[in-house]
Amino acid sequence: MSEPRMRTRDFSLFYGEFRALNRVSIDIPENRITAIIGPSGCGKSTFLRSLNRMNELIPGVRTEGSVMLDGEDIFRKNVVELRKKIGMVFQRPNPFPKSIFENVAYGPRIHGVRDRTRLAAIVESSLKASALWDEVRDDLGRSGLALSGGQQQRLCIARALAVEPEVILMDEPASALDPVATLKIEELMEQLKRDYTIVIVTHNMQQAARVSDFTAFMLTDEARAGNLVEFGPTREIFTTPVDRRTEDYISGRFG
Prior knowledge:
Blueprint (H helix, E strand, L loop, with lengths): L5 E10 L2 E11 L4 E5 L6 H7 L10 E9 L2 E2 L5 H7 E4 L10 H11 L5 H14 L3 H4 L12 H13 L5 E5 L7 H14 L4 E5 L3 H7 L2 E7 L5 E8 H6 L4 H7 L5
Helix pairs in contact: 3-4, 3-6, 4-6, 6-7
């Protein structure tokens, strides 16, 4: 494997005195989809949000250990620039109450793009990359809130792509969608990994097996802290896991 795009080493996160993550070390490879799986409350989303410092918005959060992007400590970076490099797509579609065009143009405007022609090009390329362009190209002035749930989620992905990130974080991106919309999101992830590094949190074992190249399995310990149990190629995690707890979880014996 080539050098990882992101790497955590002995990374712990605390909410006040409570340790939510316990010394998690993982390598996230470039241009691959890495799935984070595990039962509710094991720290999956907390870990994901740590990768672009979203947890800093919560009072009382502190961290130990390191999170590196291309060999650089993310906690030494300007947080606005960091979140430009590491985009986020949330569990439920959350388009702004603006037009489709303005939803996608929002990020580039924040980062100083004012030229309407350039904005239009960014909007078009982002909507094409999110497989939404053909469905909305003739109605970019329509409210993003008027789209279907699956279209809204692809709009949110286009919004994330518009600022040209290197890594895309997805927190249960299809859990609120119907099976047809879910399939479109999964097909889209397969296309996007050619150009982006993707990390996805999912409760859906079949989805993790279908779309991811690597899988990390997390569990809580006696102190309810999130621990990394096992990490490796998805095929190996799902067919020949090293840890019995991984096998028990994947086979449905618990969780």
